[in-house]
Specification:
The structure holds 2 protein chains of 2 kinds.
Chain A: E1 2-4, H1 9-18, E2 23-25, H2 31-36, E3 44-47, E4 57-59, E5 63-67, H3 72-78, H4 84-91, H5 96-99, H6 104-110, H7 117-124, E6 126-132, E7 135-140, E8 145-147, E9 150-151, E10 158-165, E11 171-176, E12 187-194, E13 199-205, H8 215-227, H9 230-233, H10 239-251, H11 263-286
Parallel strand pairs in A: 1-3, 2-3
Antiparallel strand pairs in A: 4-5, 5-10, 6-7, 6-10, 8-9, 11-12, 12-13
Chain B: E1 3-7, E2 10-14, H1 23-30, E3 49-52, E4 55-58, E5 71-73, H2 78-88, H3 100-104, H4 123-130, H5 140-153, H6 159-165, H7 176-193
Parallel strand pairs in B: 1-5
Antiparallel strand pairs in B: 1-2, 3-4, 3-5
Helix pairs in contact in B: 4-7
The chains are: A alpha+beta, B alpha+beta.
C-alpha cells in the first residue's frame, strides 16, 4: 500500500489521475473500518486532510457551497439556519467523535443507502461538484446515486464540494434506530417545504438500493396543497391528504429484510415519518407551533 | 513510512509505519502508550478516544499518515494537559508536556481527597475515582478524554449535555450512573475553583 499526501487540490487531482484505484480518505470513518477489518486493501490511500479548502464553506445568495470535508460538527454549529434539514441529519450521525471527523463528501463517496446526509440533500435540492484533471462538473443529487454503494463519479474524479439550496421554508429530518447515538439508520426520511416554488421535496434513506425521493408523493401533495389553497390560507393539512402522502412515500420504498429491520417495517416506518415530518414542517410554516427542532 | 507528530506536547517520530495503520496502533504498539484502548476498531465504542489538534476523535479511524505534523493528546498526557490549561491557559512555553518515558510509566495515583485538591491527576480523573466511576476500567480512558474536552468548553453541562458528549463511549459494565456522577462532580469542583 502507498500513502499519498497531496498538499493541494491540484496535486490531489493529479494523483487520482495517475492512480485511479486510489481510495480517498478524509474523516476515515468508513475507509478505516474497512481496512481495520481487512475488508479492503487498497493499493493507494489518498489523504485529503492536508487540503484546507475542503473544510471550508461559503454561504451564497441561493445556495451553500459546502466543502467535501466540512465535519458534521461544523454543519450543526454553523449552518443550522441555511441548511436546517442537513443540520438535523448531521446531529443524528453516530457520535461526537465521528461527527468531528466525518463529512458529507464521505457520505457521498461511500454512497451507502443508509448514509444520514442523503435524505436531507435530496429534500433540500443539491448538486455535487466533482473534478478531475479533465475538468469540473456538477452532478444533480437526483442523478448521483446509481446503485448500492455506487455513485456517478468517474474513476479519476474527486468530490470537491456540495452546493445545497438554502432553505426557503421549514425542513425536517427523522431517523429510526435502536438508540439516539451510534445508529445506522433502519430507515430515515427528510422533508423540505419550498414555499417559493410551492413544492415539497422528500428524501428516503435505507429503504431502497439507493437514497430516493418519493416523487409520486411529492406530486400528489403539491397538487393537493395547490388545489386547497393551503399555501395561502395556511390551514391544517386535511388528514386524508396527509395519509395519502404517507402511503405514497411508503410505496416509493423498495426495501429489503436485513439485520436492522424487515422490509415491511421499513415501509411502515417511512409512512409514519412522512406524516410526522409533514405535520412538523407544516405547523412551522403556518407559524402556529413553536416546534422547530426535530426528534432524531 | 515515517510519521512525525506531537504526542502529549512532545515531538515524536514513528518509523516503519504501515500505510494502512491506525493512529491507535501507532500509539499503542510503536509509542508504548497502551492507555488508549483497542476494542471495536470501528468507531462505535470510543475507548480509543484521543484529541487530535484539540478535537476528540476515535484514534482507530485516523490513518497514521494523517497525523503527520499534528498534535495528539492521549489519556497518559491528560493530567499535564489539564494542569497547563488551568495554570497557563495551555502550553505556552513549549516546555510542558509529558515525555514518552513518563507517559509509558504513567499510573493513576489518585488521592482519597474528597475535595479533588492536592492531586497529580486531572480533575476529571480524580472525580472518576471519587465517584466510583471506574469498574473494569476499559472504557475509562476514552471517557476521560471525552468528558475533559466537554468540560473545557461547557463548564456547566446539563445532564443532557453530558449524555450527548459521552454518547460515543460505551461502558459494557454499564456503569453509566456513576460516570454521570463523576462528570457532575468534576463540573461542580471546576465551578468552585473559579
Amino acid at each position: 500500500m502507498d500513502f499519498l499526501r497531496p498538499a493541494s487540490w491540484e496535486e490531489a487531482l493529479a494523483a487520482k489521475a495517475e492512480h485511479p484505484t486510489a481510495v480517498p480518505i478524509a474523516g476515515g470513518t468508513d475507509v478505516m473500518v474497512e481496512i481495520n477489518f481487512d475488508h479492503r486493501r487498497p493499493e493507494y490511500l489518498l489523504d485529503l486532510n492536508r487540503i484546507g479548502d475542503l473544510e471550508e464553506w461559503e454561504v451564497g445568495e441561493d445556495s451553500v457551497r459546502l466543502g467535501a470535508s466540512v465535519p458534521y460538527t461544523r454543519i450543526m454549529e454553523n449552518l443550522r439556519g441555511e441548511l436546517p434539514g442537513l443540520a438535523l441529519a448531521s446531529h443524528t450521525v453516530a457520535s461526537p467523535q465521528i461527527r468531528n471527523r466525518g463529512g458529507v463528501g464521505g457520505n457521498l463517496g461511500t454512497a451507502s443507502p443508509a448514509g444520514d446526509a442523503h435524505p436531507a440533500l435530496l429534500a433540500a435540492g443539491a448538486e455535487v461538484e466533482v473534478e478531475s484533471v479533465r475538468g469540473s462538473r456538477r452532478i444533480p443529487i437526483d442523478a448521483f446515486y446509481t446503485g448500492v454503494k455506487r455513485n456517478a463519479l468517474a474513476a479519476d474524479e474527486l468530490i470537491r464540494a456540495v452546493h445545497i439550496k438554502k432553505a426557503d421554508g421549514p425542513q425536517q429530518y427523522s431517523k429510526v434506530g435502536t438508540r439516539n447515538a451510534m445508529v445506522i439508520a433502519v430507515c430515515a426520511f427528510g422533508l423540505a417545504l419550498h414555499p417559493e416554488t410551492r413544492t415539497v421535496r422528500t428524501g428516503i434513506g435505507s429503504a431502497a438500493p439507493t437514497p430516493v425521493r418519493a416523487k409520486a408523493a411529492e406530486e400528489f401533495l403539491d397538487a393537493a396543497l395547490e388545489e386547497g389553497g393551503f399555501w395561502d390560507n395556511g390551514k391544517i393539512i386535511t388528514p386524508s391528504v396527509a395519509k395519502q402522502f404517507a402511503d405514497l412515500c411508503s410505496a416509493a420504498c423498495n426495501p429489503i429484510d436485513d439485520v436492522r429491520g424487515t422490509a415491511s417495517y421499513r415501509r411502515h416506518a417511512v409512512g409514519i415519518m412522512a406524516r410526522r415530518t409533514l405535520t412538523w414542517t407544516w405547523e412551522s410554516y403556518r407559524g402556529t407551533a413553536a416546534r422547530t427542532e426535530g426528534v432524531a | 513510512m515515517r510519521v512525525n507528530f506531537t504526542v502529549n506536547g512532545r515531538k515524536q517520530e514513528a518509523d516503519d509505519v504501515w500505510e494502512g495503520e491506525s493512529l491507535l496502533y501507532v500509539l499503542r504498539e510503536r509509542m508504548g502508550l497502551p492507555g488508549s484502548k483497542n476494542a471495536c476498531e470501528q468507531g462505535e465504542c470510543g475507548s480509543c478516544t484521543v484529541r487530535l489538534d484539540g478535537v476528540p476523535v476515535c484514534s482507530c479511524l485516523v490513518a497514521a499518515g494523517q497525523v503527520e505534523g499534528r498534535e495528539v493528546v492521549t489519556v497518559e498526557g491528560l493530567a499535564d494537559f489539564a494542569k497547563q490549561r488551568a495554570e497557563h491557559g495551555g502550553c505556552a512555553s513549549g516546555a510542558c508536556g509529558t515525555s514518552l518515558q513518563d507517559a509509558q510509566q504513567w499510573a493513576a495515583k489518585g488521592q482519597d481527597s474528597q475535595t479533588g485538591e492536592g492531586t497529580e491527576l486531572a480533575p476529571i480523573q480524580q472525580a472518576f475515582i471519587d465517584a466510583g466511576a471506574v469498574q473494569c476500567g476499559f472504557c475509562t480512558p476514552g471517557l476521560l478524554v471525552a468528558a475533559d474536552e466537554m468540560l473545557e468548553h461547557n463548564p456547566n453541562p446539563t445532564d443532557a449535555d453530558i449524555r450527548e458528549a459521552l454518547s460515543g463511549n460505551l461502558c459494557r459494565c454499564t456503569g453509566y450512573e456513576k460516570i454521570m456522577d463523576a462528570v457532575r462532580l468534576a463540573a461542580a469542583r471546576q465551578g468552585e475553583a473559579v
